[in-house]
């Protein structure tokens, strides 16, 4: 599980994982998108930046200081409580993101996770697949 952040060898990591039979959980532009999706749908390419995601997330209860001056990105206490039980909302919103892609390669109909180049998945997250595989949610 990783996100885009400043990683430079993402396509190579995906190719190696595929060769090794390892499933990949990937968020673009960042894992923080998954957190935001617990509250609201989201759209618009981000060019690898989390600025807008962070701005929108800070509008939510308990996340007012998220990713500010000291990089406060902790997930504990009140933050956990406000997202608890909203996994299916986040999943629904994450799955909708693939409908925003304009190319067939990256659309939901195109088999997004298998056929779309990782860096073309701007904005997306498949954290929900991990939760489904772990039987935490039924997606």
Give the helices and strands, then pairings:
Layout: E1 2-3, H1 10-20, E2 26-28, H2 32-36, H3 51-57, H4 78-83, H5 87-97, H6 112-115, E3 124-125, H7 127-133
Parallel strand pairs: 1-2
Antiparallel strand pairs: 2-3
Annotation field: number of helices: 7
Span of the ends, CA to CA = 19 Å
Mean pLDDT over the full residue set: 84
The level of helicity is: 25-40%
Topology as a string of helices (H) and strands (E): EHEHHHHHEH
Low-confidence regions: none
Note the overall shape. globular
Adjacency order of strands in the biggest sheet:
1-2-3
Radius of gyration: 15 Å
Q: What structural category characterises the helix and strand content? A: mainly alpha
Overall number of domains: 1
Portion in strands: 5-15%
Describe the main β-sheet briefly.
3 strands, mixed
In total, the number of strands is 3
